[in-house]
């Protein structure tokens, strides 16, 4: 027994229990399972599982290799073989003399001993794919779906979801069995440098399943192959927005793909891309560079299906044929015009304006009354100037003056987009008047404090210190600690005052978190 690893040698005539099993999965795949109970230098159980195989003979061959390596080099050697087996493809001639009986009764390697008594318990079924975690003693759950798999009992091997009522379970179809298509994909990009700066960003996701697993810890085991993605972002004024989208779009796309383990319809894949673009747009508008702007194009290939979605100024063409007979089919055409009605309302409300065909931050001297109301950050600025007195009389007087200017019925020779802006502006003017009057009547003093908070530079130390009435010029650490305590106390008092008010939704969260 000199060729046996010391951890596998028997002590006082007792054999360590070493067992190799072949487990059949629900998806008709097979894996080799090696189990060993080691007695010295202390009790320890080793469990290793080989890769899924389509044929049982291949799994048996894996088990033989795992057993040999374990006896020769112990646990570390067996684990290294386990990793190599994932890349190994057995040839037919290597499987000729493979016999499953050799794993148990007449195993050719010394030190093997059958330990089937260790597996007398009811065998638990294992669902295909990754991402399953324990939900209960008899069920697993795919956390991102969520789909449940029954391992034991009358419904063993079944998939289900939770019903509308507590404790109700609804049977569903098994997950999608991914298909492998013989399709080769290549991607390349080229851009024209403007003003000495590269505004475009191109990103290729060679294998979305691998990227999801490594970067986001997500399991995408149920999508067809090849599974690849491509994204192109073109900056408009600067490259900041395009750069941010290129670095973060996969964090929005891949979690959505992981939400379903059944087959995706093409329309559903289209919705996934569109939802990803909408979320990117929302994040960019909240970021530090909303006026950078970019056009975006996403493409996703899953198996034999190719879907695209875009926003802004982008186009996708399918080129067919070669030479003189070549043609093209337009798959997507997004013009991304800034004079579009929905786009104009969106950037007006975000504080933007178009000058010479480009989107800029709004300039007060170039805004009419309707656009000023639309881009006002809060109800105070809709009706009052910074120096105006805060009382009901002042609010009502400002409302009457502005209502005459922005009422849609008073506008003439306005196109549809401009008229829409006046309709939205008048609606916001009325809503702001009602809210502001209610807040003033509720607690005028707290309302003044709220206006002061909204106009303060709370994101700077000096501005926050001025708001809270503390001196931010500490001479030592002890004084700094006292100032922080005073600031926390002042902030707590402000929150108590604001909690009593009917705070408008558009900035209630800002007040309660600053």
Automatic annotation (TrEMBL):
Gene3D superfamilies referenced in this protein's UniProt entry, alphabetically: DnaJ domain, PPM-type phosphatase domain
Domain PPM-type phosphatase: 184-514
Domain J: 378-441
SUPFAM superfamilies: Chaperone J-domain (SSF46565), PP2C-like (SSF81606)
Protein origin, superkingdom: Eukaryota
InterPro entries, alphabetized: DnaJ_domain, J_dom_sf, PPM-type-like_dom_sf, PPM-type_phosphatase-like_dom
One Pfam family this sequence matches: DnaJ
PROSITE patterns: DNAJ_2 (PS50076), PPM_2 (PS51746)
Name used for this protein in its record: J domain-containing protein
Biological source species: Durusdinium trenchii
């Amino acid at each position: 027994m000199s060729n046996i690893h010391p951890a596998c040698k028997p002590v006082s005539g007792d054999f360590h229990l070493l067992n190799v099993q072949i487990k059949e999965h629900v998806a008709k795949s097979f894996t080799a399972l090696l189990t060993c109970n080691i007695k010295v230098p202390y009790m320890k159980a080793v469990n290793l599982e080989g890769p899924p195989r389509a044929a049982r003979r291949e799994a048996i061959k894996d088990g033989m290799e795992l057993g040999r390596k374990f006896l020769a080099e112990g646990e570390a050697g067996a684990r290294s073989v386990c990793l190599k087996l994932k890349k190994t493809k057995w040839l037919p001639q290597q499987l000729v003399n493979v016999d499953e009986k050799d794993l148990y009764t007449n195993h050719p390697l010394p030190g093997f001993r059958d330990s089937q008594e260790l597996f007398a318990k009811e065998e638990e079924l294992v669902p295909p794919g990754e991402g399953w975690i324990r939900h209960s003693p008899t069920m697993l759950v795919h956390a991102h779906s969520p789909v449940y798999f029954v391992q034991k009992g009358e419904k063993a091997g079944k998939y289900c979801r939770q019903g509308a009522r507590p404790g109700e379970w609804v049977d569903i179809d098994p997950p999608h069995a991914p298909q492998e298509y013989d399709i080769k994909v290549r991607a390349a990009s080229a851009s024209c440098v403007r003003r000495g700066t590269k505004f475009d960003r191109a990103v290729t996701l060679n294998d979305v399943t691998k990227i999801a697993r490594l970067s986001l810890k997500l399991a995408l085991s149920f999508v067809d192959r090849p599974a690849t993605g491509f994204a192109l972002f073109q900056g408009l004024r600067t490259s900041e927005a395009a750069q941010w989208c290129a670095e973060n779009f996969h964090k929005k796309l891949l979690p959505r793909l992981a939400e379903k383990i059944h087959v995706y319809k093409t329309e559903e894949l289209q919705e996934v891309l569109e939802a990803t673009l909408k979320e990117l747009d929302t994040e960019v508008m909240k970021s530090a560079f909303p006026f950078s702007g970019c056009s975006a194009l996403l493409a996703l290939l899953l198996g034999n299906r190719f879907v695209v979605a875009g926003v802004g100024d982008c186009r996708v063409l399918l080129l067919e044929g070669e030479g003189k007979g070549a043609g093209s089919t337009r798959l997507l055409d997004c013009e991304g015009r800034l004079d579009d009605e929905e786009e104009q309302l969106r950037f007006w409300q975000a504080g933007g304006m178009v000058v010479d065909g480009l989107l800029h931050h709004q300039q007060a001297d170039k805004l009419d009354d309707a656009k000023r109301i639309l881009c006002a950050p809060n109800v105070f600025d809709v009706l009052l100037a910074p120096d105006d007195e805060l009382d009901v009389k002042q609010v009502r007087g400002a409302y009457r003056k502005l209502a005459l200017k922005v009422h849609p019925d008073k506008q003439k020779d306005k196109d549809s987009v401009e008229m829409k802006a006046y309709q939205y502006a008048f609606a916001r003017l009325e809503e702001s008047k009602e809210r502001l009057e209610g807040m003033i009547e509720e607690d005028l003093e707290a309302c003044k404090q709220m206006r002061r908070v909204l106009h303060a530079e709370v994101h700077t130390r000096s501005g926050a210190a001025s708001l809270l009435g503390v001196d931010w010029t500490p001479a030592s650490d002890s004084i700094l600690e006292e100032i922080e305590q005073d600031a926390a106390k002042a902030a707590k008092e402000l929150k108590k005052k604001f909690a009593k008010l009917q705070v408008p939704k558009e900035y209630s969260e800002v007040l309660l978190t600053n």
